[in-house]
Amino acid sequence: MIKNWSDFLFPYEQAVSELKVKLRGIRKEFVQFDKRSPIEFVTGRVKPVESIKEKMNRRLVSEDRLSQDMEDIAGLRIMCPFVDDIYEVVDILRKRSDLNILEERDYVNREKASGYRSYHIVFEYPIEMVDGEKKILAEIQVRTLAMNFWATVEHSLNYKYDGEFPEDLKRRLQQAAETAFKLDEGMSEIRKELIETQEKNDKNQ
Questions:
Q1: pLDDT tens digits along 108-117
Q2: Quick one: which of 180, 194, 73 has its CA closest to 122?
Q3: How many angstroms separate the CA atoms of 112 and 174, rounded?
Q4: Is 139 assigned a catalytic role?
Q5: 103 contacts 161 by C-beta, under 8 angstroms
Q6: How, if at all, do strands 132-144 and 74-80 pair?
Q7: Which one from 71, 139, 185, 189 is the annotated catalytic residue?
Q8: What is the pLDDT of residues 64-95, one digit of tens each?
Q9: 132-144/119-129 β-pairing
Q10: Mean pLDDT of 155-171
Q11: Could you tell me if 154 and 163 are in contact, meaning their C-beta atoms sit under 8 angstroms apart?
Q12: Are 77 and 143 in contact (CB under 8 A)?
């Protein structure tokens, strides 16, 4: 039985705080060396207690198994300008020695039925506590700005309709997700053409 939620969540809050600094440091390094960063910005949060309890009931997770069975109590989001950037960021994360990656879920090319797209990485992260090291589970979601816009709006609507969307609204949300992805693809094509044009101009000089 969890008697003090503040104590239980402390290492997760510490992890989010540390990881935001580290992940933002990746972007800073690219900028420092005059390179285009695949990371636009990073956010992080610890799941509120009421949300944890709701998910425990929904997923039938017991309190004594919470730290082992709920992987997104600590959550980070990395927003990228382009779809290709998502996979560049994932490669960077795979090479890190401080993240023990346990599972990857590619919802970018294999979107959920709702239309949701993102790349999820579940990992184990060590926190140095006063009485020693504690390893916690955490999740990083990597997505484009367009994917994040759709997911944010869909999430807010989920609360209003308690997850039970009318069929017409569900269809329109799926269409909006597809439109957002087409926007991503279109922007990627524009970027590619601009790079090719610049390379041709450089050769002709």
A1: 999 999 999 9
A2: 73
A3: 10
A4: yes
A5: no
A6: parallel
A7: 139
A8: 999 999 999 999 999 999 999 999 999 999 99
A9: antiparallel
A10: 78
A11: no
A12: yes
Q: What tokens does 112 get?
A: 């959920």
> What is the side-by-side strand order in the sheet with 100-106?
41-46, 74-80, 132-144, 119-129, 100-106
Instruction: Give the list of residues 6+ apart from residue 156 with CB closer than 8 angstroms, or none.
Output: none
DSSP structure string for 31-77: HHTT---S--EEEEEEPPHHHHHHHHHHHT--GGGHHHH---SEEEE
How far is 186 from 7, CA to CA, in rounded Å?
47
C-alpha 145/C-alpha 76 separation (Å) is 15
Of all residues in the chain, the percent with pLDDT exceeding 90 is 81
- Give the pair of three-digit tokens for residue 94: 């795979």
Residue at 69: amino acid letter: D
CA 205 to CA 203: how far, in whole Å?
6
* 132 burial type by CB count under 10 A (0-12 exposed, 13-18 middle, 19+ buried): exposed
Q: What HEC string does 75-129 produce? A: EEEEEECCHHHHHHHHHHHHCCCCCEEEEEEECCCCCCCCCCCCEEEEEEEEEEE
pLDDT at residue 158 tops 90? no
Q: How many CB atoms lie within 10 A of CB 95?
A: 7
d(CA 67, CA 121): 17
